[in-house]
């Protein structure tokens, strides 16, 4: 059995108790309802902010804040804006009223006098849809987190590989200095092979493939806003976006630290950013 908290809102206490009684006695056996009540939209909004109910069932015409105003207020608050809200009314029952309620953010509309079967069916249906929505959202979040982890792993893998190759290359170059000139060609060939591996395009392709999974619109938005960037500058923007520091970017792009800083400054100038706006903040805001 699954428990749900329902916030029932009506300035008529008799109507309030009728709806609660219908829901208590005629709900499906697989669910259990816990009730919160409010006599107007203003109090209901405050209760909703504190308790985050699973569903709100509200009257339309009430003092201080009516049902439509309360729905609009709820939809503005991130913590509860997705809460399903059903509006119940005996007066505002014209087609334009239905449109007004749905446009405000109601998920359903029930006319008074309330039918107990219809009430239970609509409440249960709204809760099931909300549960399905939450499940999909959680799954989407999990998938996005997995993609971010994969991007982070790929970024770290490429960085560590380059660090190792750079160390090997440096040591080999130092070792070659101690050799006779005639003995150096074979070692130089190995150094060249290492450099080719470090600069291989497959490295960027592998990074970009994972990056696109997490941020599918980034390159499109960047190029739409700044279509004069070179491939190298676009790469640096992507590395900035994932949070790499200038040292890591220099290693990724096989640049000297100073050269990477100069390149980053030139990109900021090319983007025509104001002096007080950091390029990192701008890129991550795209």
UniProtKB/TrEMBL annotation:
Phosphoprotein found in the keyword field: yes
Pfam families in the record: Response_reg
Keywords: DNA-binding, Phosphoprotein
Domain of life per record: Bacteria
GO function term, MF aspect, one: DNA binding
Domain Response regulatory: from-to ranges: 5-127
Alphabetized InterPro entries for the sequence: Bact_response_regulator (IPR050595), CheY-like_superfamily (IPR011006), Sig_transdc_resp-reg_C-effctor (IPR016032), Sig_transdc_resp-reg_receiver (IPR001789)
Any GO BP: phosphorelay signal transduction system
Positions where 4-aspartylphosphate occurs in the chain: 59
Keyword check for DNA-binding: yes
Protein's name in the database: Two-component response regulator
Organism: Microscilla marina ATCC 23134
């Amino acid at each position: 059995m699954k428990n749900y908290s329902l916030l029932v809102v009506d300035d008529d206490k008799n109507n309030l108790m009728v709806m609660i009684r219908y829901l208590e006695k005629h709900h499906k056996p697989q669910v259990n309802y816990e009730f919160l009540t409010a006599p107007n939209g203003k109090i209901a909004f405050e209760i909703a902010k504190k308790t985050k109910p699973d569903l709100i069932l509200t009257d339309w015409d009430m003092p201080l804040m009516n049902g439509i105003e309360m729905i609009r207020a709820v939809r503005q608050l991130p913590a509860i804006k997705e809460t399903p809200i059903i509006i119940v009314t005996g007066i505002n029952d014209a087609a334009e009223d239905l449109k007004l309620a749905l446009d405000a953010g109601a998920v359903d509309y029930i006319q008074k006098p309330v039918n107990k079967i219809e009430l239970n069916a609509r409440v249960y249906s709204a809760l099931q849809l909300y549960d399905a929505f939450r499940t999909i959202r959680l799954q989407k979040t999990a998938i996005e987190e997995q993609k971010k982890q994969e991007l982070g792993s790929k970024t770290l893998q490429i960085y560590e590989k380059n660090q190792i190759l750079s160390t090997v290359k440096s040591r080999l170059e130092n070792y070659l200095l101690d050799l006779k000139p005639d003995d150096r060609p074979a070692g130089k060939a190995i150094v060249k092979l290492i450099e080719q591996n470090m600069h291989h395009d497959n490295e960027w392709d592998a990074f970009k493939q994972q990056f696109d999974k997490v941020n599918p619109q980034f390159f499109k938005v960047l190029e739409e806003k700044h279509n004069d960037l070179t491939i190298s500058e676009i790469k640096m923007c992507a590395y900035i976006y994932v949070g790499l520091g200038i040292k890591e970017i220099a290693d990724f792009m096989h640049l000297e630290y100073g050269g990477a800083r100069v390149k980053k400054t030139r990109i900021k100038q090319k983007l025509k950013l104001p002096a007080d706006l950091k390029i990192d903040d701008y890129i991550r805001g795209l």
